[in-house]
Write a structure and sequence with these properties.
Homodimer. One of its GO terms (cellular component) is nucleus. Helix content is 26%, strand content 21%. It is an alpha/beta fold and 408 residues long. The chain has two domains: 332 residues, Metallo-beta-lactamase, Chain A, CATH 3.60.15; 36 residues, no CATH class. It has an eight-stranded mixed sheet. Strands 8-9-10-13-14-15-16 form a seven-stranded mixed sheet, covered by helices on one side. The chain has a two-stranded antiparallel sheet with strand order 11-12. Strand 9 and strand 10 form a beta hairpin. The protein is globular and about 80 Å long. 42% of the residues are buried. The structure holds zinc ion (2 copies). The site of one zinc ion (ZN) has 4 residues, from loops.
């Protein structure tokens, strides 16, 4: 590993441990849609990928072709990506992963004979990027790196979420590990039909569940730990002054701790309150298995590949009905806006955003009246079932997710 790379890795680690020690709420939590197309990309929609920004950390969900280009067009910093969660191994969700890894991990096409490449020594026990995905994700990455003869300067690891009928151990490929691949990739087994806490630190955890699609597919739930309650300084400062208590104590109170003053008075900080919960689904016609994890999510991102829009979508055939469109959509492993709305209501989601649209629904609804009419109608179909307004994702759209209001 080059000196620069080592310094960067150390920097990342010390920043991480400092953050974990202080455990504040994330300054902000934001989703940026990098690609919102299903199957075929178009001039207005790229293949699937979205970035979740947790403060300054960036996690990616899916990585379709040309995700790197989309990142460059967005405000998301590619070098900040620490984790990549793959929902399923369909190409439109994973074809962008290898070029992105080469980009983040200081990749190159090799060194001429007789010259030593600084990438030859890599600390594989400290992966810079962690990838999570279903069976086949590890083999896909390893195979792609091997046959493109790609060298990487920084290490990665792949953790696989194994279904009960998958092999529970092994790598699903006979190729030896790439020299940048950590040997510490886990094969994560289900517990009661889900994969609980596949990642956890003091501020946030991720769980996952299988969702039904035409191939094995995963939905993810990201849960922020509880966060400090709102503190009213007027309630505490006179007491601290009266007892000559150092003002630093306010920091402990802010974290929800109780503090005993010199005269025996005990001050209680405001109770901590729930953090944010996000449910990010891959392609699906039935995500029921994730319900126990996703209840009361602050945000649900659900696909809505096809819709029946008579009188609005000029490509509607006269013989199409809502039922026939839904049946065809389900048979291909996908959902309609109404199905997304029903699921959002079922889990009590606070906000629903639709994603993953057929190429016939252009994603330039911010500047094109015709597209706006169609996307507004798609949102309205979901809203009928969901019970409140539903947004449709557009490439490079960003959404801030506010903390849930504290209970009255
Ligand atoms: Zn898809
Ligand atoms: Zn798919």
């Amino acid at each position: 590993m080059s000196a620069n790379a080592i310094v960067n890795t150390l920097k990342r680690k010390s920043i991480q441990s400092l953050k974990e020690a202080t455990r504040p709420a994330f300054s902000d939590v934001q989703i940026t849609f990098l690609g919102t197309a299903s199957a075929q990309p178009s001039s207005t929609r790229n293949h699937s990928a979205l970035a979740l920004r947790l403060g300054s950390d960036v996690w990616l969900f899916d990585c379709g072709e040309a995700t790197q280009h989309q990142l460059q067009r967005s405000a998301v910093k590619m070098g900040k990506i620490e984790k990549i969660f793959i929902t399923h191994t369909h190409g439109d969700h994973i074809f962008g992963l290898l070029p992105l890894l080469a980009g983040i991990l200081n990749g190159a096409g090799g060194a001429a004979d007789g010259t030593e490449d600084p990438r030859a020594r890599i600390d594989v026990d400290n992966p810079v990027v962690e990838i999570y995905g279903p069976l086949g994700t590890r083999a896909y990455v390893r195979t792609g790196l091997k046959y493109t003869q790609s060298l990487l300067g920084l290490p990665y690891v792949v953790h696989e979420l194994r279904l009960p009928w998958d092999p529970q151990s092994g790598d699903h490929t006979n190729l030896p590990r790439h020299r940048a691949e950590s040997p510490n990739g886990r094969n994560i087994q289900q517990v009661d039909g889900v994969w609980p806490n596949i990642y956890q630190d003091p501020r946030v955890s991720v769980s996952a569940a299988p969702i039904l699609h035409s191939v094995p597919c995963v939905g993810y739930v990201v849960t922020e730990s509880d966060v400090p309650g709102k503190i009213d300084p007027k309630k505490y400062i006179p007491e601290l002054q009266r007892t000559n208590t150092p003002m630093e104590v306010m920091r402990r109170l802010q974290q929800g701790e109780s503090v005993e003053l010199s005269d025996g008075t005990v001050l209680h900080g405001p109770p901590r309150r729930a953090g944010r919960k996000l449910c990010i689904l891959g392609d699906t016609y039935d995500p029921s298995a994730i319900v126990p994890l996703a209840l009361n999510a602050d945000l649900l991102i659900h696909e809505a590949t096809n819709a029946h829009l008579p009188g609005i979508d000029p490509d509607t055939k006269p013989e199409d009905t809502h039922e026939s469109i839904e049946a065809r959509t389900r048979s291909r492993g996908h959902s309609t806006p109404q199905m997304a709305g029903v699921f959002g209501k079922r889990i009590g989601a606070r906000q629903l955003i639709l994603n993953h649209f057929s190429a016939r629904y252009a994603g330039n609804d911010d500047v094109n009246e015709e597209s706006k009419k169609i996307m507004t109608a798609i949102g309205a179909l979901a809203a009928q079932e969901f019970g409140s307004e539903v947004a449709c994702a557009r490439d490079l759209m960003s959404v801030n997710i506010a903390l849930p209001s504290p209970p009255p």
